[in-house]
Amino acid sequence: MTAREEFSRALLDAKVYSGLSMRQIAEGADPALPVSLVASVLNGGSLPGRDRFERLLTGLQLPKDHADHLRVLRNRAVNESGRERPPTPRVPEPSYVVNGGNVTIQQYGPSSESVPQYGRPSPLHVTTPADFVAALNAVHIWAGKPTLRKLVALGNGILKRSTVSDMLNGCTVPSLDRCTAFLRACGISDVEDWVFTWRRLKALEQPHAAPWLPGASG
Fold this sequence. Notes:
Helices cover 51% and strands 4% of the residues. By secondary structure, the chain is mainly α.
């Protein structure tokens, strides 16, 4: 068993020990974490950075010796992977608020011809198809509002002008391949959170499927 696998198994055991739901753990973190993120970490989908891990421990409400053991296992997993997440750069970031299908930009970061990765919109608080479409519009703004022609050129044959227009002006969740092609064309290379959110929304359209997707149903 690898250190990463041992850490993942210990986290699941800790959740069982706590007796808490994913939502209770997420809301008990200080500050609170997205339920989808907690589900991803507890199910071995991602190795959390130090800050998020400490917040997760707060939500799990574990005894000190249990929490310390998990810290040791996480450190082993990090050493095994040969990486640790760098601290978040303290730079001005644009703030995007998605609410009821509307996007509000509260402030702007420094302008640049290249697309900076900091401050990019996150889909983790999206709860409806309208929110998802609004979040995609936020990505378009964050990327500097590239033209339809440019997006099509960067879409690897998946995007068309009408496709992008429908995606940004529609009220339904677009297909996964078009969604990821759009995100990458806008400069987002890591689309894991978006794929998870897409799957969660699709699962909620079919209630019998939602319980089988971690994080889709509280």
